[in-house]
Amino acid sequence: MDKHELEQAKKRKLFRKLGVAFLIPGIIMMAIGMGSFFISFGSFESPKYFFLTFVSMPFIFVGAVFLSLGYMKSYASYTSNELRPIAKDNINYIVDGTKESIGSLISETKSEKIKCSNCGEYNDKDAKFCDNCGKTLIKICRYCHEDNDGNAKFCKNCGKDIS
Ligand SMILES: [Zn+2]
Ligand SMILES: [Zn+2]
User: Fold this and answer.
1) Could you tell me the distance, in angstroms and rounded to a whole number, from the CA of residue 158 to the centre of ligand 2?
2) How far, in Å, from the CA of 101 to the mean position of ligand 1?
3) Which residues of the chain register pLDDT less than 70?
4) Do 64 and 16 have their domain in common?
5) Number of structural domains, the chain?
6) In this structure, which ligand is nearest to the CA of 146?
7) How far apart are CA 86 and CA 98, in angstroms?
8) Ligand 2: distance of its center to the CA of 80 in Å?
9) In terms of residue numbers, what domain contains 163?
C-alpha cells in the first residue's frame, strides 16, 4: 500500500463512520416518528413525534451517501484494477493491428511502386513513363548514360550520385 492508497483507505473509513453516525439517529428518529404516527391511530391525540419522520429523512439520506462513498470507492478501485490490464491489452492489440496494416501498406507502396518526381503519382516499379503525367520515370545517368530507376539515388552502373 502506498501513501495515496492509505489516504484513500482512511477517507473510506471516515465516510463509513460518518455514514453510520448519520444513519443510526436517522433510523431511530424515523422509528419514533412512525411509531407515534401509528400510536395516534388508537387515540385522539395528534401524533406528537411524527415530525421526526421528516427530520430523519436528511439524516438517512446523508448517512446513505457517506456509506455509499465509503464502500463504493473500494468497489470502484477493485473493478478498475481488475479491468485495466484487460482493456489495455485490447487497446494494444487494436493499435498493433492497425500499425501493422498501415506499416505494410506503406512499405508495399514504397517497395513496389516508384513515385513520379513530377506529379507524385505512384507507378509500377518497371514502368518507364508516369501513368498520370507521362513524364519518364527512368533516370538516365548524366555521367555514363545508364538507365536507372526513377527513384535511384546512385547510378547502378558507375555509382555516382544521380539524386
Ligand atoms: Zn507523373
Ligand atoms: Zn552512371
Assistant:
1) 4
2) 27
3) 1, 44, 73-94, 102, 104-112
4) yes
5) 2
6) 2
7) 18
8) 64
9) 116-163
